[in-house]
Write a sequence for this structure.
């Protein structure tokens, strides 16, 4: 069983065909940088380009960094404002002439990590955070993955993600220790209300977990994502198959 997984991020669009029985990428992923915000039409062309590069004809799953209800996008904090209210599933399906399933990017990462990654076989309450341009979040419990928007919890007049996302560390040129201190406070707030048993940290920065995990103290067991930054691609492909 194969599906094309696409992960729309704040700075790039990535995609690869995935074996949905194993979670393995079937080819090296294609990454198209998007230094400027792409409009929905430009994005659909980019996705069609990735599909064409793989000569793709089959189901496609797309993870989007915003609230997704059905095929429709309701928020786009770090993407082009024209996405808000857009039926992107329809738009991308038209551009690729394939069946497209659309879901939140963190929900995609959660599906992949719970099925094949760091949460595999664990049925207890799990919190997964993806740290990138923004903060993606999901709760998983007994096999059900629920997308959340915990990056937008207010904190000191701003959203938490503005200070704890990996992009904040780059932007403010913070040391790993300083950034981890912020992250620690954020995790303490989340632990207070969610009481997860397992916390999985994903996003590109999770590949460097040895740099900041030593500064984090959580009640729950804390582990890096197994797929690091590729969970979004794998999970989007899983969603396409369903
Ligand atoms: C969005 C979320 C998304 C996260 C990670 C946030 O700004 O609101 O929907 O999952 O960024 O991309």
């Amino acid at each position: 069983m194969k599906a094309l997984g696409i992960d729309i991020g704040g700075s790039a669009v990535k995609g690869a065909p995935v074996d949905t029985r194993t979670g393995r990428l079937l080819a090296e992923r294609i990454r198209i940088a998007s230094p400027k915000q792409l409009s929905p039409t430009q994005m659909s062309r980019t996705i069609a380009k990735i599909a064409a590069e793989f000569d793709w004809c089959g189901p496609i799953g797309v993870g989007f960094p915003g609230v997704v209800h059905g095929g429709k996008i309701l928020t786009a904090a770090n993407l082009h404002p024209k996405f808000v209210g857009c039926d992107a599933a329809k738009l991308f399906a038209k551009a690729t002439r394939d069946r497209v399933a659309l879901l939140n990017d963190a929900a995609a990462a959660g599906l992949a990590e719970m099925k094949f990654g760091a949460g595999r076989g664990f049925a207890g309450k799990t919190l997964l955070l993806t740290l990138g341009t923004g903060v993606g979040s999901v709760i998983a419990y007994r096999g059900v993955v629920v997308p959340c928007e915990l990056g937008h919890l207010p904190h000191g007049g701003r959203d938490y993600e503005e200070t704890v996302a990996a992009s904040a560390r780059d932007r403010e040129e913070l040391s790993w220790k300083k950034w981890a201190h912020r992250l620690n406070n954020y995790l303490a707030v989340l632990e207070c209300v969610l009481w997860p048993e397992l916390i999985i940290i994903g996003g590109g920065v999770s590949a460097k977990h040895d740099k900041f995990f030593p500064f984090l103290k959580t009640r729950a067991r804390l582990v890096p994502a197994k797929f690091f930054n590729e969970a979004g691609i794998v999970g989007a492909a899983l969603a396409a198959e369903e």
In short: The pocket of beta-D-glucopyranose is lined by residues 65-67, 75, 77-78, 104-106, 130, 132, 134-136, 149, 151, 161 (CB under 6 Å). DSSP finds eight helices and 15 strands in the chain.
